[in-house]
C-alpha cells in the first residue's frame, strides 16, 4: 500500500532509502555485483589520472557505471524469475540468459572502450 503523503521531499528521501536498500541487497547476495563494483572502484582513479581528454575520461567512467547499472538490472530480473517459481521453464531460462547477455555486452563495451582509448594514447 502506498503511503498517503508520498510526494515532494518525503518521496525523494524514501526513494533514496529504497535505492540504498537495493545496493545493499546486491552487495550481500550477488558475487558478480561485488566483483564488478570492486573493479570499478579500482578503475575509477585510473580513469581520472590517465593522460586523455576530458571527454575520453568521461567515457571511461561512463562505461564503468554502465556495467554496474546493467548488473543491477540483471540481478533484479534473476530475483523476480526466482521468485515466480522453482520449476525449470524455458522462458525463465531465456529471461536470465538475455539479462546475462546484456551484462556481457556492457563488459565488452567497457573493455573495448578502455582498450581503444588507452591504446590510442599509450601504444
Structure, described:
The chain is mainly α. It has a single domain (31-122), classed as Helix Hairpins (Orthogonal Bundle), CATH 1.10.287.3610. Helices cover 85% and strands 0% of the residues. It is flat and about 55 Å long. It is a multi-pass membrane protein. The chain crosses the membrane at residues 32-51, 58-77, 97-119. InterPro entries: DAGK (IPR000829), DAGK_prok (IPR033718), DAGK_sf (IPR036945).
* Overall CATH class: Mainly Alpha
**Count of folded domains:** 1
The ordered H/E elements are HHHH
Please state the CA-atom Rg, rounded to the nearest Å: 18 Å
Strand content: under 5%
The CATH architecture name reads Orthogonal Bundle
Q: Tell me the span between the first and last alpha carbons.
A: 58 Å
Oligomer: single chain
How many beta-strand elements? Answer: 0
Descriptors:
123 residues, mainly alpha, Helix Hairpins, 4 helices
